[in-house]
Amino acid sequence: MPEYRVIDAFTDRPLAGNPAAVLVMDDAYPDAWAQAVAAEFNLSETAFARPVDSPDADYELRWFTPTVEIDLCGHATLATAHALTEAGVPGPYRFTTLSGVLTVEQRDGLLWMDFPAKPPRRIDTPESLADALGTEPLWTGVGGQDDLLVEVADEAVLRALEPDLAAVARLPYHLVVPTARARTGPDFVSRVFAPRVGVPEDPVTGRAHTVLAPFWSERLGRTRLTAHQASARGGDLLLENRGQRVLIGGRAVSVARGQLDL
């Protein structure tokens, strides 16, 4: 029977940050089974890791929302590294994924993920976006192929957003990421909406920061940044923009563990 852990990522206290379920498997498993397990947990992502015999990676890592498999997820990667650390597996951790080989290492009391950067390219604002979000964007751009970055007027506007999620889901983007300069504390704040893939609002999203880090690094003229995702649970991230790569640092806390009766 597979063991699981539920881990809160990008936080140093339980019941905050972004929860992910993590299953470290011994063998291969059916895709349909993994998707059904993710739907059962009903968290924004469930991660499945299993050892692989490869010179480049130690584990295969896959991520499932309640409805689809996705090609990149930050908080569930952080949670998987935390689960391996708790199990006594020494790092650094090398994962082969749909986004290539990703590594996680421990440094300065944090887990640091090495992800591909997705600098956003500016686009014309989609006609329906202002109505969908409930505010007029200052700037819009696309990171990678399907993550929409939206700069809004200020932090107060960002925190007050109550988007029309049905309208957001009709936009052709995996993530819709409003962001603004922070008033105090971190360098910038953001929120993430992903109803198109079964996640109305994601609490803390590592993937989004592969787009946010290059954007704010250019705006602020610095490669090291602090970020806060202003969801109801909230989460904090440290970022290092290294051109083609983004290092994303954070903490994680285990909150539950058990076995599936499957």
From TrEMBL:
User: What is the native source organism of this protein?
Assistant: Nocardiopsis algeriensis
Q: Which family does the record claim for this protein? A: Belongs to the PhzF family.
Q: Which GO terms describe its cellular component?
A: cytoplasm
Protein name, UniProt field: PhzF family phenazine biosynthesis protein
Indicate whether Heme appears among the record's keywords.
no
The family database entries (Pfam families) matched by this protein are listed as: PhzC-PhzF
Cross-referenced InterPro entries: Phenazine_PhzF-like (IPR003719)
**Catalytic site positions:** 45
What are the alphabetically sorted keywords of the record? Answer: Isomerase
Show the GO MF annotations: isomerase activity
